[in-house]
Design goal:
Layout: H1 2-25, E1 39-42, H2 45-50, E2 54-59, E3 65-69, H3 76-81
Antiparallel strand pairs: 1-2, 2-3
Bound molecules: zinc ion (ZN).
Zinc ion binds next to loops.
Length: 87
C-alpha cells in the first residue's frame, strides 16, 4: 500500500511541475510575442471560468493567436498615491 501512495505522489508531483513549467512558458499579457503590437482578447465564457489565469488573444497585426498569461491591472489606489514627478 505504501508503494502505491509513493507512486501516486510522484505522479502528482510530475503533473504539478509540468503544469507550472507550461504556465511559465506562456507569453505574458497583451503584447504580441512576434511583433509586439497589442493583441485583442478573444472572450470565451467557458474558458474564462475554467482557467481564469489564462486568456486567449489574437494579434491584429501579424495574425498570431494563442493563449497568454492574464495580467491583472494594478489597483487604482496605488497609482493615485504615486507621485507624478519622481524626486
Ligand atoms: Zn503580432
Amino acid at each position: 500500500m505504501l508503494v502505491v501512495v509513493v507512486l501516486l505522489v510522484t505522479v502528482l508531483m510530475r503533473v504539478a511541475i509540468i503544469t507550472a513549467v507550461a504556465y511559465l512558458l506562456l507569453p505574458r499579457g497583451s503584447p504580441c510575442p512576434h511583433c509586439g503590437a497589442d493583441m485583442a482578447a478573444v472572450r470565451n465564457r467557458l474558458f474564462d471560468r475554467l482557467l481564469p489565469v489564462l486568456q486567449r488573444r489574437w494579434c491584429l497585426e501579424c495574425g498570431w493567436n494563442g493563449i497568454v498569461r492574464r495580467i491583472r491591472p494594478a489597483p487604482s489606489h496605488h497609482a493615485a498615491r504615486r507621485p507624478l514627478i519622481p524626486s
